[in-house]
Amino acid sequence: MAKAMGPDTESFGASVADRPVPRISIHAFCESPETGSTIQRAGQDRRLSKAHLTVHMGGVFGAVEYFTESSTPNVVIVETRESGERIMHELERLAQVCDSGTKVIVIGGMNDIRLYRHMIRQGVNEYLVAPLQPLQVIEAISSLYNDNSSGPIGKIYAFVGARGGTGSSTIAHNTAWAIAQNLQIATTVIDFDVAFGTCGLNFNQDLMQGVAEALASPERLDDVLLDRLLVKHTSHLNLFVSPAQLDREAEITPEAVETVIEVVRQAVPCVVLDLPHIWAPWVKHALTSADEIVLVANPDLSSLRNGKNMYDMLNAARPNDNPVRLVLSQVGVPRRPEIPVKDFGEAMGTAPELVVPFDPVLFSTAANNGQMVSEINANARSSQCFRDLAQKLTGREPKVDIKPSRGLSLDFLKRKKAG
What we know:
By secondary structure, the chain is of the alpha/beta class. Helix content is about 40%, strand content about 15%.
C-alpha cells in the first residue's frame, strides 16, 4: 500500500533516532565514567530494547585486549583521549582484531571535521564528540541499521484510560479525526480492544475482522493484506477496527502487536493506538514503545490512584522521551463530587494537558450518529479541545489560506479627496 502522504505531510513522522534497533550485540569501551553512564542510559531506552549492550572501561586499548581472545560483536563503541594521528594508530590496532562485519563508533574529544573525514575513509562508521547525551548514542547506533533515504516512518500515539469508562476511546478517535481533517496528516486508528472495540461504531463503519485477523497471523501481514483490512473513512483517515466478538480468545502477544504496528507505521505518518484498560504484557509493550502516550482520567480517586501508578511507571521506562500527557475528561458532572483539576494535577505530578468538559448532549448525539463531535458542532468547547490536543501532539498547526488583499484603486482615492 502506498504511503498516504499529501504534499503537506510528507516530512511528518518519526526520525531515524526514533526507529527501533534490531537484535544486535553492542560492546562499549569507555575512558571516562561519565561516558559509560551515558551509554548505559542509552541502553535502557525503548529503541534499544532488542539490543544487548555491554559497557566496559579501558578505551581502545581495553577493546584490543578483549577482542584478541574473543570475536567482535555487531557494534563496537570505543572512547579515546588521544588526538590527531595517535587516534589513527589506536584504531589501526583495533582493526587488526575486529571481524569484517563489525561496525565501529568512535567517541573523542576533538571537534575536527578533517579528523572525522579521515576516520570515515579508514572504515569508522561514526565519530561522536564527548560529552554525550543518550539520544546522540541512540541515533548513532540507529543510523547504522536504518536507511535515511527511505524517509520518516509513522509516529505512534498511544491512548489509554486510567480506569474503565474514562472515555479514552472517544478522546483517541476525536483526536485522530482532528489530526486527519484539520491538520491534513494521513492517520490510521488501530483499535486493539478485540472484544469490545468501539472504533467501528464511533465512525459508523461496518465491523470487520481487521485487527483480530492481523493479530492471529501477524507473519502474513503485508501492504496488500493491510490494504484489504483497513477501512478508508476519509481521504486522510483509515480505520483498523476490531470485530467486537467474544469468541476470539486467542492470546495476544507483544510480538504480534509490534508486528502489526510496524507494518501500519510504514504506510502512514501518524498512527493512533486505542488501547483497552487491561494490564497485560502486550499493552505495556505497546505503551512503552510509543512515541507519545496520552493517559485519560476522570477527576475521581480511582483515576488518580491508577493514573499516578501508570504515570510514574511509564515515565521511568521511557527516560529519554516526552513525559506521559494527562487528559482529564468528563469534568463538571452536575452534583458529582470531583477532585479539583489543580489538586488532581498536583497529586499526579503533572498539569493536565487538556480538560474536556462534561457535555452529555453533544457526545451522546455524536455517538448515536456515528460521528465525531466536531462534525456535530465544530464551535463547541470540546471540539476545540481535540483540535488543541492534535496540535500539541503533532507540533503542527492548520494552514490558513490567506486571500490577497484588494488594494484601493486610484479612482477611489481621488473620489475620497474630492469629497
